[in-house]
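Morning!

This is the sequence you dropped in the shared folder:
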Amino acid sequence: MPVATRIEEVRNEVSGHGQAAPTAKDLMESMVKLLHERMLKYNWVGFYMFELGAKPPMLALGPFAGAMTRILVFHSTREFAARRRRADK
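The structure's back. Tokens below.
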């Protein structure tokens, strides 16, 4: 099957999931499962979301298929350098 056809089929299925999913989390979970099963060239599929109230701001891994991770988010290189200096003391 041509890649463009497969992508269009997956796009249509995702649209159907969007109409049927009762919550955003349910939608993300069904999308991850679908993409992981049908788009074999991807070895990781998932969503990152900001953790509410986290200090410093953190991206938390939501529904996924692959290795779990967290990413520290910096607003600027100056903030990164300041945090790095404090950590080195």
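Headline: The two ends are 58 Å apart (CA to CA).

More detail when I'm at my desk.
O.
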